[in-house]
Amino acid sequence: MSAPLRPTWCEIDLGAIAHNVRQLRHLIGPAVAIYMCLKGDASGCGAAEVARRAEAEGVDGFAFGNIDSALACRAAGIKRPILLYPTCLPDSAPLLEQAELMPTLSTLGDVVLWDRAARHRLPVFLKIDGGGFRAGAFPHEAAAMARAITDSRHLRLAGVYGHPMTSYGFDDEPYTLAQLDAIKRALAAIEAEGIEVPIRMTSSSAIVLGHPNADLNAVDPGRLVVGMSFQSVAKRHASWKPALVGLKSRLVMVRALAPTDDLVRAPFLRLRPNMRLGLIPFGWSDGYPKSMPPNATALIRGRRVPLLGPSHSELLRVDLTDVPDAQVGDEVVLLGRSGDVAIQIEELAEQWRMSTHELFPAIGKTLPRRYID
Ligand SMILES: *Cc1c(COP(=O)(O)O)cnc(C)c1O
């Protein structure tokens, strides 16, 4: 495939992924498996590239919310086990067997459908609903579900996992603890039946960092590994590096606004003496805020310049008055470094009035990505 011609891109630092995997490994120790969650195309960082780097760094498996994304990763050569969260249909069973992807089952009805659809002996995960009321068997159903899977003709129990709801703004510690307790009760009930559960996990990013005793024998954080920040207990403090390190474009137009009486007065533009305007091919279609942030700036030739609203679908105006040497093709930095100045992810998030958690997927979804290491 030829490189994209569009001169706007984001930059993903795979070295940050490797660093974060090592930090995580150090915190949880060698005996706990890492099933890195790559939902949302690894939060906009690109699942296949992130998986390749994480696999090289010793991640034990991956988890996806999107079967297409998981298949693309297999096609890209990812070898480790892959778990699919409950986001595909039993019809896909033959394809899953072929690509070695493991689906999630939540109900006895699921066991019947998947057992009928599978041809060989498909490894599956049983999900426990610890009180989030999404997918998963409730604790009192867990042992019977696990038994139905082990008794089936075409399924094999590869693991059991839960996913306590956190980071939805509840900040309700008793609720988190109750969910963890429910998941552990379900596991105990399964094991009391003498059923072996190879992989047992319930730790997304917030749980890994906030509840070290929930590690079980595997964890499945995602956003933490791409470098989003979470609260952590002292025992789980570490330095995490954001993998999203750049958002850049190039000037596709530069023009001087000659002072003539002939110019229409636009209600949004305050004309300055010797004003120069530039354009970059980036706008709200690619995640830029639709309502122009009042303090929006970018960096050109090591200098900070204002962006001038309104923002457009695929264009933004840059005020180049203070950078008279700016030319078509010059790099315009919205996130990252230009000479001695830099815009960090926290500053960009503040300009866009988003959290850094929202910024990752907002930026990575449509733009071409360039990987650095
Ligand atoms: C999304 C998800 C995770 C990972 O969550 P992060 O907050 O990105 O760490 C883990 N487990 C399950 C079941 C999930 O759906």
Automatic annotation (TrEMBL):
Domain Alanine racemase C-terminal: 244-372
The protein's name: alanine racemase
Any single biological process term in GO: D-alanine biosynthetic process
UniProt GO MF annotations: alanine racemase activity; pyridoxal phosphate binding
Cofactor(s) the protein needs: pyridoxal 5'-phosphate
Keywords recorded for this protein, A-Z: Isomerase, Pyridoxal phosphate
Domain of life of the source: Bacteria
Catalytic activity: L-alanine = D-alanine
Gene3D superfamilies found in the cross-reference section: Alanine racemase, Lyase, Ornithine Decarboxylase, Chain A, domain 1
E.C. designation(s): 5.1.1.1
Presence of the UniProt keyword Zinc in the record: no
Modified residues (N6-(pyridoxal phosphate)lysine): K39
Keyword Endoplasmic reticulum among record annotations: no
A Pfam short name: Ala_racemase_C
InterPro entries: Ala_racemase (IPR000821), Ala_racemase/Decarboxylase_C (IPR009006), Ala_racemase_C (IPR011079), Ala_racemase_N (IPR001608), PLP-binding_barrel (IPR029066)
Any single Gene Ontology cellular-component annotation: cytosol
